[in-house]
């Protein structure tokens, strides 16, 4: 019914950065996988929503276990240890993302995050929900002429992510949810500052001074809120920004390395290759080839 691998490639190509008037998202990856294999216990610094389109398995969240079968959706919040195991023919749709905070619409963003934090971990009978119907509509169908054009994917993906709190039973809409805790608000502000200043040597003292907190407090907030060190977060943001530039610009790799704050193009190439499994130039070439194949 679906072209699974091609659907995944197309979503990752066209629905990575989702801009909205008051709420925007950065998608780390989309997945549309047939016969997913089990994975080890791990955690993320972002949100991940999954939908089971067939097969069975077990999802663990902390010390809780949830059955997986067709029609089930489940939500992983940042920092939570989780695992998929005991799989049998498991077909899974998944998306990993985080809201992008904007100073002009900060309240909307933090309320959306709070709504996700209050979501149920697991829900069944999701196949007929508006969210899952939107998700499936974005996939490439075996009958190519029935698939939606790629130009619609960003808008549909934005609506999908915006609808996730309702899918998991968060009461009311995120527009009226209580504000995020002050600790998590500080972490969100720190991440936004890092993203806006990647071209320079962003340091813990600099960000702490900007937020008017101690270096020790900021370091502890990162460790407790998203289970990631400050230096690791900066490195992740540099790689992510470089990845987007490789995808959407023709800027020289040396210039991208400089604009994302790497000390040299050689260091950038080595670190990018380590985290992405492919050198920057090869990554850009592969991305361009995949884009040409699906246009």
What number is the mean pLDDT?
A: 87
Tell me the series of helices and strands, N- to C-terminal: HEEEEEEHEHHHHHHHHH
Q: pLDDT under 50 segments (min length 5)?
A: 172-180
CATH A-level architecture of the largest domain: Sandwich
Ends apart, CA distance between termini = 20 Å
CATH superfamily of the largest domain: Jelly Rolls
CATH fold-level topology of the largest domain: Jelly Rolls
**Number of helices, counting only DSSP H or I runs of 4 residues or more:** 11
CATH class of the largest domain: Mainly Beta
Report the radius of gyration as a whole number of Å: 19 Å
- Biggest sheet record: 7 strands, antiparallel
**Helix/sheet category:** alpha+beta
Please tell me the total number of domains. 2
Kindly estimate the percentage of residues that lie in beta strands according to DSSP. Answer: 15-25%
Kindly state the percentage of residues in helix: 40-55%
